TrEMBL record:
PANTHER family: HISTONE-LYSINE N-METHYLTRANSFERASE ATXR2, SET DOMAIN-CONTAINING PROTEIN
Sequence ranges assigned to domain SET in this UniProt record: 82-463
Lineage, broadest ranks: Eukaryota, Viridiplantae, Streptophyta, Embryophyta, Tracheophyta
One Gene Ontology MF term: histone H3K36 methyltransferase activity
Keyword annotations: Metal-binding, Zinc, Zinc-finger
Skewed-composition ranges (Basic and acidic residues): 8-17
Protein name: SET domain-containing protein
Length: 494
């Protein structure tokens, strides 16, 4: 019996709660004013911010209630999520209510990512579709490339990457299995033949993964299907592709932007997607309006319309919302926030140099997504009848040992989920984010934890709710609210 497997099993498939860097509650009105606009206490160092101050504050303003309600009703209808509705109340702001009864274990919602990206470091651990975040290739390909990177990491590059990771200011990127040293290396030829498909492992035919489809421009992005490749191109990637089809000066500008993001904080890559998403939508709307000879519509109102899906989830500027890292003293908070704001403006300037017509770059707050990796495969081997298992393990054991204790490292990234982000927190939630066997892409899956009656509010926990009252409140302070859920009211010291 492997010492590693039971651990992975205990880890189950529960999704990690969103991190503190990614608050999901709507702010009180004052908070939006304080955090939005010119972004913080001191004058902005960014030319764009100064030049377009009125437009930026319009883009960042809380959408009018009626327009928000219409937006969510439309979204729920178009995605056929008829089990829920988004409600607004003056007391709690946005919330999600049940539109029908749910039994324990029922699927409430599968929320599609609006904008998201895999963490840069996680790309070493997991090869996933850049659009839907499904694992791609084959189990052999996944194991082979992870071990290959691991072997390179333990020889020379490891210190560099680790250094780069440590300077990840305000990042939510978590540690990567591949950056850990592991002396248990396998010959390079073996890894090569795993990657190319010349070597196959037993029972992997039960775990077939979609074939890799490359971007027709660059070698960076890979997809599970042509339809994901096309959707990504249409929605974001046509402005971000660093491939040969991109004009050379734009390509080098893009490369500079990507380098800066990878060296500082990979959330800028998600922000770039949010901006290209908006720009490409804007271009489409403009074409439509020109076609319909609709001269009433100003360019700015088209931009507002293009930005709408993201504006609905906007809470605060990124530099105002990042939780203060533990090693930063609270009296240094101002300079910390200024530092990361400068970083964001540098990133924006680099992006602007690359895609030019970007006129706005407000930061949305994003959740964290995680998809389990090929642990199912090793669990399957472990569950085989003894004789078959013994036979299979002769082949698989060296790979499992070489992968080390982080063999089950999931695909991790940052994403914005339009509906899940409307769900309020409770320390006694009636629902949770949970991946079932069939949930192999990056979408957020919300399952009922108990029977939920029609019209009840659906709540999830933003934190690990199995900790005492004080600890819960301290963690929730990063989200900017004091929890008044039934459990907190009961446990609150007098
Ligand atoms: Zn895909
Ligand atoms: Zn590309
Ligand atoms: Zn609570």
């Amino acid at each position: 019996m492997s010492a590693l497997l039971p651990l992975a099993r205990d880890r189950a498939r529960e999704e990690n709660p969103p991190k503190a860097q990614t608050p999901r509650r709507r702010p009180a009105a004052e908070e939006t004013r304080a955090g939005g606009g010119m972004g913080g206490s001191s004058a902005s160092p960014c030319d764009l911010e100064r030049e377009f101050a009125p437009q930026i504050s319009q883009l960042l303003a809380t959408p009018p209630l009626q327009s928000a309600q219409e937006y969510y009703d439309g979204l729920i209808q178009s995605r056929k999520h008829d089990g829920i509705r988004v409600n607004f109340s003056s007391k709690h702001g946005k919330g999600v209510c049940a539109n029908k009864d749910f039994a324990e274990g029922d699927l409430i919602l599968k929320d599609q990512i609006l904008v998201g990206a895999q963490h840069s470091l996680n790309k070493i651990d997991c090869a996933v579709c850049s659009y839907c975040f499904r694992f791609i290739g084959s189990i052999e390909f996944q194991i082979g490339r992870r071990l290959y990177w691991q072997s390179i990491g333990s020889s020379n590059d490891c210190t560099n990457r680790r250094h780069c990771h440590e300077t990840d200011v305000g990042s939510s990127a978590s540690s990567s299995g591949a950056t850990k040293e592991n002396n248990n290396t396998l010959p390079e030829e073996v890894l090569g033949s795993l990657i190319t498909g010349d070597m196959s492992l037993p029972f992997t035919d039960h775990f077939s993964l979609p074939q890799v489809v490359g971007c027709h421009g660059c070698e960076e992005e890979r997809y599970c299907s042509q339809s994901c490749a096309d959707s990504d191109w249409e929605t974001y990637h046509s402005l971000l592709c660093t491939g040969s089809k991109t004009e050379p000066s734009r390509r080098s500008a893009l490369q500079k932007f990507v380098e800066h993001a990878n060296g500082s904080n990979d959330i800028f890559l998600v922000a770039a997607k949010a901006i290209t998403f908006t720009l490409l939508r804007y271009k489409k709307l403009k074409m439509q309006s020109e076609f319909q000879k609709n001269t009433d519509e100003s360019n700015f109102s088209l931009l507002m319309e293009a930005w709408k899906p993201l504006s609905m989830g906007f809470k605060k500027r990124w530099w105002d919302s990042v939780a203060l890292p533990e090693d930063v003293d609270s009296c240094d908070e101002d300079s910390f926030r200024q530092q990361i704001r400068d970083l964001a403006f540098t990133s924006l300037q680099l992006l602007k140099d690359a895609i030019f017509d970007a006129e706005c770059a407000p930061c949305i707050l994003f959740g964290v997504y995680k998809i389990s990796s090929f642990e199912d495969y090793f669990i399957h081997i472990d569950d085989l009848p003894d004789d078959e298992k013994e036979e299979a393990e002769k082949v698989t054991r060296p790979f499992l040992d070489a992968l080390g204790e982080d063999y089950a490292a999931p695909c991790e990234g940052t994403a914005f989920f339009p509906l899940q982000s409307c769900m309020n927190h409770s320390c006694c939630p009636n629902a949770k984010a949970y991946k079932r066997d069939e949930d192999t892409d990056g979408n957020a899956v919300i399952i009922a934890l108990e029977p939920i009656k029609k019209d009840d509010e659906i709540t999830i926990s933003y934190i690990d709710e199995d900790v005492p009252y004080e600890e819960r409140q301290a963690q929730l302070a990063d989200y900017g609210f004091v929890c008044m859920c039934p459990r907190c009211q009961e446990e609150k010291p007098n």
